[in-house]
Design goal:
This protein is of the alpha/beta class and 261 residues long. Helix content is 27%, strand content 12%. It has one domain: Peptidoglycan recognition protein-like (Lysozyme-like), CATH 3.40.80. The structure holds zinc ion.
Length: 261
Amino acid sequence: MAMESMLSTESCLMEDQSGQANADALPAEESFRASLAMDTMDMEAAAAVSGVSSPNIHRSIQCRGATPMSRGRQNIDTIVLHTPEGFVPGTLSVLSGTRAGFDWYLPPSGELYKCNDYLRHFSWHAGDLGYNRRSIGIEQWDFARNMPNAPDAHYQRLARLCAYLVETLDLAVRHAKNYGEYGFIAHGVVTPHARWDPGKFDYDKLLSLVSDLVKGRPEEKLDPTDGDPTNGHPQKRYGSPASNASPPEPSTKATSTKPTS
Ligand SMILES: [Zn+2]
């Protein structure tokens, strides 16, 4: 259906998100080669960190809206959360275009798409060059206005992906509420003049689930005395494990009975 193959005009993916003037998109053949190479990368990354399993990727498709840059733990300190404002066909069609890109896509179906070899390029998802360079952009769910309807199962799937990123990239589990901060941030906070996605997203729920999955690295609370989080260079803080934390358990079962708010 035509409606389903298109994105809403409100979608961040309908606009140039490179944050650069005259940025060159990846050549189509290069993105094709990168797509083929991506599948094994996560298994290798996960194997490098003990106790972390690689995400179950449905498909890998390299976006063309990306700029080559060798990145790693030292460069990446933030996850930007989006809603694509559309359905799967329309969102995936962005990947072959030259306006925008993103690193991961988790639609309501739960099928996970890896959309950028993010250790070799930064994708154009945030509309802000600084954040594009320092972050991983996750398109998730469908519409910002529909975010309150996302079930716990969606948050649990998203948390598994985020926990993998936290472990392999050494990210802080914290909600970044202001421009310039590192952690988990809404696209609407990065470019508030242009975007409001992902809408009414439940950060407490996600971060609590991620914390449960990431052993020994408790959720970080914002503390005004905790230094200046906006001083440009990534400044990672994890805090020490709480003394009353329960001992790590090998179980990875969903904790649906645990209150999260
Ligand atoms: Zn967005």
